[in-house]
Write a structure and sequence with these properties.
Number of strands of chain A: 0
Largest sheet of chain A: none
CATH topology of chain B: Cytochrome C Oxidase, Chain A
Shape of chain A: flat
Bound molecules: copper (II) ion
Largest sheet of chain B: none
Oligomer: heterodimer
Helix content of chain A: 55-70%
Order of helices and strands of chain A: HHHH
Radius of gyration of chain B: 23 Å
Largest interface: A-B, 17 and 24 residues
Structural class of chain A: mainly alpha
Distance between the termini of chain A: 52 Å
Number of domains of chain A: 2
Shape of chain B: globular
Number of strands of chain B: 0
Number of helices of chain A: 4
Number of domains of chain B: 1
Structural class of chain B: mainly alpha
């Protein structure tokens, strides 16, 4: 398989972006956005993960087969989470948000 | 009727001078081998040992249930027996059974390759299985485990005072063995097919192993992590599954069954691949609807990940969640039914011969039909609440795993025995043992459907002193002793045949498939020269209808 050479500039740019996003993670944690807390935290985390997978792990420059493998890995994780939530979101005794049992959600 | 002698033509069959067995004899040459065929033999010996270990626990279970009272062993001991029966049989026999032995041996041969893509990783996966097996053996010898093979929390993570950690670490380790095997098969099937071996020319055995490998790679990591979490909770009291420290026990069941329902297909799909080979070879016909059968394997592998909640209808899952999973579960019957219909359609007007492998294949279809349709009973929530955790469930999954997987495994072992060893097994003895197994199996497990429907719960050493219940249990125990005799027979005549059996020709069954075009047993390199495939799969046709150059035509 042909190796794609990624320039150092790209690596440093991505590294910089990851650092900025890490600071952002910390900064948003200082404020209370209510229901958006989880959404914002996850959005930042997903962006960081995407940058690592696409650039540091070279998936952006890989063959279609590699991309299918990566996508199916995440797809299977999504199956696990979504179908499990079909139980948690509808189970009596859970708060309905994030599937945390009611007894714990106030802790 | 295919006669072994006629296939070699007029010449007497002489064994190949140089083959993978006689290339070297030292113990080191076996333990450090990179040859997929020798590794398959190592697996064969290993899992045979575990099969009889797991079988010994089954004997103890059946003996205890001969009488209603818990009088042979203490209930605590009985709990350990059924746990260790399940753990050993599932993780150390059924999961590796067909793929690690027959699959390991045949995947490269069937696609015309010299070996698997990663021979050293293949050897590593055997060592990993052995190491995991040693941990489980330690748990067995040190005093046993009593959680059930499912390791349900919080009992496993908090309350059980048995060797849970040793067994759990063993299961965790064996998982990596099947991940590596799956990875090896996927890469091999993608990259190492012989010239002309297109995807639609692959034997269905390969399609089903490809599908199985997908489950191994995508599902096994989840159970590994789940068991790790049980360990974290048990040792460090991190609250994940135990409600007393803030966890949720049903989360464990979600994670566990996300793997363990598809794991049923890890056990079953390779067996289905074997059956496709046997049905075509012994009815001398092309597979009816080849592509449907091929895609049904993939369909089962992928769709099988969407149905796990049917194990949790009575354990606290929300009713809505149960409805979703019940609905989804019905559909998984479709690809399985496609296979059964296509196997039977292949038999139609075929020229069928009843050699031993075919007896196993026909038995498989019947057992799988019963096991599969009773699975639909269990997918119906209302009915499942009645039969959940009863012997009805036990009978159902034994029809799938023993009646399905073990039948396919034994059928395949007999069918490819000439290729594995270069010798024919004794046909008369083999047919006798196949019949004994058929009778013994039904007698063991059919009464369990009845007694389960009447309400007898599983996993108890005692049951109410009811004459009907006891009669059904006595029938089951009697059947188990017949079944045991059926399994012991091949343990005698198969090793016997390695020394005294007739020499096998290259293609004793007159079957298509590249594995029959090399010598029996094959040389270490599998083929003298790389084969070029110019024909479609399963071209069992009379000579006058189709002539293909370079094709070994079936004679009869
Ligand atoms: Cu299931």
């Amino acid at each position: 398989m042909s190796e794609h050479i990624v320039s150092k500039t790209i690596y440093f740019l991505i590294f910089g972006a990851l650092m900025v996003l890490t600071v952002l993670t910390y900064w948003v944690a200082l404020y209370d956005f209510g229901a958006l807390n989880v959404v914002i935290a996850l959005a930042v985390a997903v962006t960081k993960a995407l940058l690592v997978v696409l650039f540091f792990m070279h998936v952006r420059y890989s063959t279609r087969l590699t991309k299918i493998v990566v996508i199916s890995g995440f797809f299977w994780l999504a199956l696990l989470i979504v179908l499990t939530l079909s139980d948690y979101f509808t189970r009596p005794g859970t708060s309905g948000v994030g599937g945390v049992p009611a007894s714990r959600s106030t802790r | 009727m295919i006669d072994a002698a006629s296939m070699g033509g007029d010449l007497p069959v002489v064994p190949p001078k140089d083959n993978y067995i006689n290339r070297a004899y030292s113990i080191k040459s076996w333990l450090l081998t990179k040859d997929h065929k020798r590794i398959a033999i190592l697996y064969l010996i290993t899992i045979t040992f575990f099969f009889f270990l797991g079988g010994a626990f089954a004997v103890m279970i059946r003996l205890e249930l001969l009488t209603p009272a818990s009088d042979l062993v203490q209930p605590e001991t009985y709990n350990k027996f059924f746990t260790m029966h399940g753990v050993v049989m599932i993780f150390l026999f059924l999961i590796p059974s067909v793929p690690a032995t027959l699959g390991n041996f045949l995947v490269p041969l069937m696609i015309g390759a010299k070996d698997l893509a990663f021979p050293k990783i293949n050897l590593l996966s055997w060592y990993i299985l052995v190491i995991g097996g040693i941990f489980i053996l330690y748990a067995v010898v040190a005093g046993g485990v009593d959680t059930g093979w499912t390791f349900y929390t919080p009992y496993s993570s908090t309350y059980s005072n048995t060797y849970v950690m040793a067994a759990a670490i063993g299961v965790f380790i064996t998982g990596f063995s099947s991940i590596l095997t799956g990875l090896n098969f996927i890469v091999t099937i993608h990259t190492m097919r012989a010239p002309g071996m297109t995807w639609y020319r692959l034997p269905l055995f390969i399609w089903s192993h490809y599908a199985t490998s997908l489950i191994m790679v995508l599902g096994t990591p989840v159970v590994a992590v789940t068991i790790l979490l049980v360990g974290l909770e048990r040792v460090f009291r991190v609250g994940i599954f135990d409600p007393a420290i803030g966890g949720d026990p049903i989360l464990f069941q979600h994670l566990f069954w996300f793997y363990s329902h598809p794991a049923v297909y890890i056990m079953l799909l390779p067996g289905m691949g074997v059956i496709s080979e046997l049905i075509t070879a012994f009815s001398r016909k092309n597979m009816f609807g080849y592509k449907f059968v091929a895609y049904a394997s993939l369909g089962i592998a992928i769709y099988g990940f969407l149905v796990w909640g049917h194990h949790m209808f009575t354990s606290g899952q929300s009713i809505y969640g149960s409805l979703v999973f019940s609905f989804l579960t019905y559909f998984v019957a479709i690809p399985s039914a496609i296979k059964v219909f296509n196997w039977t359609a292949t038999l139609y007007r075929g020229s069928i011969s009843y050699d031993t492998p075919m007896l196993y294949a026909l038995g498989f279809i019947g057992f799988f039909l019963i096991g599969g349709t009773t699975g639909l009973f269990l997918a119906a929530i209302g009915l499942d609440i009645h039969v959940h955790d009863t012997y009805f469930v036990v009978a159902h999954f034994h029809y799938i795993m023993v009646g399905g997987t073990v039948m396919a495994y034994l059928g395949g072992l007999h069918y490819w025995w000439p290729k594995l060893t270069g010798r024919m097994y004794p046909e008369g003895w083999a047919r006798l043992s196949a019949l004994i197994i058929f009778v013994g199996f039904n007698l063991t497990f059919f009464p369990q459907f009845v007694v389960g429907y009447m309400g007898m719960p599983r996993r108890y050493a005692a049951y109410p002193d009811d004459p009907v219940w006891q009669m059904l249990n006595v029938l089951s125990t009697a059947g188990a002793s017949i079944l045991g005799a059926g399994y012991l027979l091949p343990m005698v005549y198969l090793p016997w045949s390695m020394r005294y059996g007739k020499y096998a020709p290259s293609n004793p069954w007159g079957a298509t498939g590249l594995e029959w075009q090399t010598t029996s047993p094959p040389p270490t390199e599998n083929f003298e020269e790389t084969p070029v495939v110019t024909w479609e799969p399963y071209e069992y046709r009379p000579r006058e209808e189709k002539v293909v150059v370079n094709k070994i035509l079936p004679t009869d």
